[in-house]
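Appendix B, example 12.
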Amino acid sequence: MAELYNPEIKEEFLSQYPENTRETYRYVFIRSKATEDIIGRDLYTFSADEIISTLKDANHTTLNAIRHSWNIIKLYLDWAVRYSGSNINQAKNITMDELRNCLDKSKKLYMTEEELIEIEDKAANAQDIVALRLIFEGVGGSSLSEVCNLNYNDIDWNNNKLTLKDDKHGEREITVSDRCIKIIKSAYLQSTYYKNNGQSTARNPEAELQKSDYILQNIQTNLTKNVNGVDRHTIYRRVTTLSESFDLPYLTPKNVEKSGMIKMAYDLYKESGKLDNEELEKIADRFSVRKVKIAGVYKYNYQTLREFINMENIKELYLNDEE
């Protein structure tokens, strides 16, 4: 178990909550320990500015996550009055604007579908963008095996249905967009691969692709001549090439997946006018999120999903232009 600053006091505070809540709250204190070590005092002695520094140092990627940690710190400071000797909860003096400033605006993790389309339209290789589009629409699986295993014969081209094969969790079927089907077809038909997104200065800037029934294909080399399909490392390399080519440091398979989940949440919110566990369950099903054991029952961890599937991100990505 990770260390806490003043562990005896922190554990005393945590002991009043159920086990699942304790684990959630404990993570806030795990993150705060680095700042407490530097300052040399427990959170319950911190000024408002020092609490703000703690929230910044936690490197939260969403405002919702920052507010969650802030609320837990407020609870802790209220409880710790017996140790601090002060009735003033400094965390309550922090404004929402100050909380927003705790978020690193330069670290843009998530994209809209329009931003993805812009990448798709400018990229040199359908073989590169097909993985992005598949992941964005819910194809993933263990170690991206659903993407790697996608075969021409797994596709119902007339009805946009994909039969997905996860190396660990078996098969499932999903329906994808017309645009996704179009990109899949382009990737399958691509025969020449343009290195470094068409910007290679090498003597041979192009390479032949190894033809197979797999949608994602390797560049033809002596090492790949007996290998059908690609592995996840090939996908990571290709996404990294796009990240560098378009100067998008946040562009990773995981962030593309989360972006797709946020887009689906936005679509569901437009339909139902809410973003409750019912909507989160639909998203988790679509993206094949694994269930976890909570209080003896396997279920989706909705709290983890809400770290990024929340109205703050939906508003930032999709609703600002509608208001």
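The longest strand covers residues 161-166. The first helix runs from residue 7 to 14.
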